[in-house]
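User: Second chain of the day. Same drill as before.
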Amino acid sequence: MGREDYNKALKSGKKDYQMRLLRGEKPTLEVLDDIMPQKGAYYEQPLGIVQIPAEQIVGTKTVGRSNSFAGNFMPILQEGSEFASKWASLSTSHVEEGIRDPIKAYEYMNKFYVEEGNKRVSVMKYFEVVSIPGNVIRIVPNRTDDKENKIYYEFMNFYQKAPINYIWFSQEGSFAKLQEAVGKEPDEVWTEEDLLDFSAVYTRFSSEYKAKGGGKLRNTPGDAFLAFITLYGYNAIEEKTTNEIKELIAKSWEEFEILGQEQEIDLKMKPNEEKKPLLSLLIPLGPSKLKIAFIYEKTPGTSAWTYAHELGRLYLEQTFPDEASTIFYENVTQENIDAQLEDAIKAGCNLIFTTTPAFVQASVKAAIANPDVRILNCSLNTSHRYIRTYYPRTHEAKFLMGAIAGAMAENSRMVYIEDYPIYGSIANINAFALGAKMINPRAQVYLEWSSKKGTDIDERIRETGASCVSGKDMVIPEEASRYFGIYHMDGENPRNLAMPLCHWGKFYERLIRTIMEGKWKYDDDSSQVKAINYWWGMSAGVIDVICSQNLPIGTKRLIELLKTTISAEAFNPFSGILYSQTGIVVDDPNRSLSPEEIMTMDWLAENVIGSIPKMEELKEQAEPVIKQQGVKNTAGTNE
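Assistant: Same format as last time:
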């Protein structure tokens, strides 16, 4: 029996050897000594007896035995060799009584290299053993700025709380996200029961994921698993059967494909103007009647953001009185968003707009479960395949608002009030600061966060002595306050100068016309798997600035000129040499930042006084939005 197994293993080894040669790869086992850091650039850490995932054993410690095996650890020495005889004996022992003696191995960057027990590993891999006991020494490299090194240090930190070595990620921050996704506090140690439960859930997922073809994707099974439990909830997945997990994996497959894409977001910078085919003029391609639901986190009376979207909904009802009907849900929370989406779908809605980034995950879940319903979420830089996202290029308006403030602030001091440090908001702050500096080189922008704990913004405005303030974008109906847009402080009284305006009605109208005219599918490139994000600005007519009669006529003319050049895409606010609080960002006077660089901005302009707050500095209600859309907190402070 042992000889027969050796012959089969030998064939597998020779096949793997040839395939690697054809791909230009090393055909035999990796050797740790060949890839170890230089002496002094690492230290050793004994881990004791560890259950080593068999698939993560990739090589040998020294070169001595590496040439006896193909890269898949199957033997390549001839059948009559002494090596073959010993391998066959081990094979028989494994079948009859099991191989119990632990191997000796080194772990480096979460891969394992055998020092003693190469044949035992080969035999157990042949019999598809899941894990192999081993006495392990970890090789810990010195810290560097290399991405893999950073991920490895995150893994070691996680390993202290949960000694799990069979899951790996390709992105920084993922181990901390996993800790959170399974319901653990950042430093909470896992119990034995936790570890057993997790192993069971992950094993069921990874088996079905690989069976579906996950090994061909560019992400790791860990990446896919984290996305999976973030979407559906770890506890909910724990309760599902293997068949239910299999079905959800199949339905969510395009989400996993996006994880491995370098350019996963297809930005639509302006509405699709593609002409309809002649046949579609005779045969309508869109639905005959749209029923549209709007999901609001707050109420139009208490939130300027919700009020703006509600005006957009009312505009739709006036624009399409016969073609569309609308309903809305307000005061929706994380606890009831799933139920509200389900209610909208049961009510016959075939188009749903969820108007806050906090509802992204719920939107994706609903879209996967209801593929005939179009669901769009109002967020930026969100990579999900089953929904589309939309957001205005508000930084274009903020640049003009900054120019107004620069012209009207006599003491060159102005305050900018922002809600959350999320994608897009940092670009708004910096665009405002650049606009102010263009008009007034001495302009200083004091940044205040309304969601920051213990912040008294009115007191901060008095302390800075700022004469111009950028507040909420528009009036909140129930407050009837004048503290919105750009206002000039005349003693204790605000004097409104201008306000940015997002024409949500026009935004929604143009999105809906793509459906009614049968153009919806033209935005989707069937040759690629990408998330679609509509990011329209002044060129699409959905962003504007409204100037008040309090603004001098010369300043109005200047703003109109700037607006015209931005609308014609002849000027980008983020062009030329750019400086942050910590140094130069762009040193090429002829370069403009790309859309991706603007969206993911995590630095503050040099004339901004303030910083990007960390999660723990913000109020509790900020948490869902920050988790979904928060930027990296890497900007310096200039106070």
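The longest strand covers residues 42-53.

User: Great, on to the next one.
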